[in-house]
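[Automated response] Your request has been received and processed.

Submitted sequence:
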Amino acid sequence: MSQKSFCTFIAKTTRDKIENALLPFLSQTVEHDQVIDLQDIFSRLSFDMSCILSFGTDPGSLSMDLPVVPFARAVDDTSAALFSRLSSPAALWKLLKLLGIGQEKNLAKARVVGDRFIIEAIEKRKQEMNEGKHICPDMLSSYLSDEDVPNSNEFLRDNLDSFLTAGRDTTSSGLCWFFWALSQNKQTEEKILSELRSARHTITPKGLITFDPEELDNLVYFKAAFMESLRLFPPIPHNWKAVLKHDLLPCGFRVTPEMNIIVSIYAMGTMQKIWGEDCLEYKPERWISEKGTLRHEPSYKFMAFNTGPRTCLGKNMALTQMKMIAATMVYNFCFEVVEGHVVEPALSITLKMKNGLRVRIRKRTSI
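Generated structure:
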């Protein structure tokens, strides 16, 4: 994931999906004055990008007619079932599994659909590589090209499934809450626009503007706005840990085997003793140093991407995708949350919005 070829592939994949799927869809929405659910749009976009990065296949879930993609639904059903397991006594979900009902029934069906989709992609890629066809530098191709990596379908399936699921839900969550934060802080949006105006950009055949990731890396306030959004709305709101042996936590609390520890990253982001008296405010300025550079915060304080040996491997990939998507959308369009729409977190593994994010869009005319 740190190889230059894969990083280039990430940028190209994101740019292609923005130009060929996201921008045409948003332009159509403006033309027909439609209300859309941004959470659904981001989920579809990140799902398509994750599939391309994982095994070079674009399921096309972000199309004009917003089709139902069985594999995408299977991923949703799997996440819901896993959250149910985490939040219920083990005896309950094991009974549901034995009886084949409820969330466990949905999980079993989702596993069949997901396995079939991924295994077919693996078999197709193996055949293409055996025939010497040109292969894109996706995750599957990297695995198959490495002699030290097992090439069994089961090993590849499990790794690709984890990579895809982690990349899809977290990216869409981060984008959705970022746009919610902007809708509540118009001054922040104006400052971001001011930075984007000075950035080098590309004009599409339809006259819209896109940005390269290298150019966005120079925009301090834009990056600070994203970090502040991730502080208040971390895509993974909780972290579960299991205790293997007797231990003493730094706070003085003794833990014993079979205990589960839940670290609330969501709560940490709004704790006064960690972030100060203005901890509940959306304030990108807290991330900017006196020298005007992006302020570094230690990962054990800002845990949106976890910390220590468990730091998210896809951190840079996720930030690259989110910044490219957000910059293009903010520069080209205005977004207004539908009046009366209630925004609140849903009970899920990732920090989703219970009611989605329903917005109206219009093309930005004054840049």
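Summary generated for your ticket: The CA atoms of residues 293 and 301 lie 19 Å apart. Residues 153-184 form the longest helix (32 residues).
If you did not submit this request, please reply to this message.
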